[in-house]
Task: inverse folding
């Protein structure tokens, strides 16, 4: 193998695929990145056996070939090279690659490409989703997925194609985030899968602002879902098991409802969180209807620390119904407010012992359900 590529493109390709490298690989080759020539392109790939990322960059191929190189070493080296042409020349006898960039010369020892796990074969997409919509849907749900493996199914994002509607949902037992969007393709029969949140976050990270559409190949004979993003393919195993029926925990009516500016409430929550950290992120939320029609209602967020003090922030709100006083995990409130792009947000509840429900004002494509925290006496 003897190829020449631009340092900037090589660095970007490596930054994309290296996210699939396992920090504690079960096999030495899984700590490596695969380099393989294809026509006038250099193929970069990495896998942890559950997630595989492949990226293609333009290259001048003088001699075809393939090799795997240690990801950490190769990424660090390339990121510190000057922004010019980089040549990669494989010595088959020693399984090492000479990297030349300007006056810099490095030799990196690799492992034969024959030891690298097979890369999933690329297939025709079953559905196309606008890139920005898919990225927003992932970012508005993945944060609510479970971080531990006590219930593996909850570490994923439930993804359903039904008719012309795509639904994504994630829950960790304390909160639920659901996002829906209309799509062009029509599914006569509902298809639903659960994709690891980590894999989905990598897809969202790769999608650029100018990405027109992302192709998705749904699982068939293989338990794989594949995403086709410009010059990049992400393949992920799906999670086995049944995702909980989340529709049953979304309240249908509310005794208290308020509308508030998203940024105002987010700032109030961030200030309260500084002090609430010492009490498991528990913060008190007070919602007060107006005393007369000429005045606004208000929502007050309070964070307290027995050692460091407290913070109380009040924000004007349009409030209907009963007063509300409840404890919530302030970190969970911040997570949801941070991904709501609308100017105003609606917060609803049936009382201190019932879940709080948040959604953008004027749209029904995102809903967030948050369980209250027990009051510590």
Result:
């Amino acid at each position: 193998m003897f190829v020449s590529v631009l340092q900037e493109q090589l660095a970007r390709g490596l930054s994309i695929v290296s996210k699939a490298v396992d920090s504690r690989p079960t096999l030495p080759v899984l700590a490596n990145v695969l380099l393989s020539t294809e026509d006038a392109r250099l193929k970069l790939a990495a896998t942890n056996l559950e997630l595989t990322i492949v990226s293609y960059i333009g290259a001048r191929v003088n001699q075809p070939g393939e090799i795997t190189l240690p990801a950490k070493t190769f990424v660090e080296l390339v990121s510190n090279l000057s922004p010019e042409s980089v040549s990669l020349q494989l010595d088959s006898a020693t399984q090492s690659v000479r990297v030349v960039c300007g006056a810099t010369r490095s030799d990196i020892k690799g492992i034969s490409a024959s030891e690298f796990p097979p890369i999933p074969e690329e297939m025709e997409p079953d559905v196309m989703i606008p890139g920005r919509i898919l990225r927003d849907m992932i970012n508005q749900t993945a944060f609510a997925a479970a971080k531990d493996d006590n219930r593996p199914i909850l570490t994923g994002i439930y993804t359903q194609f039904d008719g012309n509607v795509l639904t994504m949902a994630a829950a960790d037992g304390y909160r639920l985030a659901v996002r829906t969007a209309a799509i062009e393709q029509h599914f006569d029969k509902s298809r639903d899968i659960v994709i690891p949140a980590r894999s989905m976050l990598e897809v969202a990270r790769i999608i650029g602002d100018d990405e027109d559409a992302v192709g998705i190949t749904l699982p068939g004979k293989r338990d794989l879902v594949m995403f086709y993003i410009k010059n990049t393919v992400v393949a992920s195993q799906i999670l086995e098991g049944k995702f909980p029926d989340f529709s049953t925990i979304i309240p249908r009516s509310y005794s208290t409802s308020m509308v508030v500016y998203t940024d105002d409430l987010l700032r109030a929550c961030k200030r309260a969180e500084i002090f609430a950290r010492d009490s498991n992120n528990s913060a008190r939320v007070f919602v007060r209807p107006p005393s007369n029609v000429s005045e606004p209602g208000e929502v007050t967020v309070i964070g307290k620390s027995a050692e460091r003090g407290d913070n109380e922030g009040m924000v004007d709100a349009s409030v209907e119904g009963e007063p509300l006083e409840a404890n919530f995990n302030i970190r969970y409130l911040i997570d949801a407010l941070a991904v709501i792009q609308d100017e105003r947000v609606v917060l609803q509840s049936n009382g201190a012992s019932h879940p709080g429900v948040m959604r953008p004002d004027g749209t029904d494509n995102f809903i967030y359900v948050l369980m209250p925290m027990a009051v510590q006496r």
Observations:
- The longest strand covers residues 175-196.
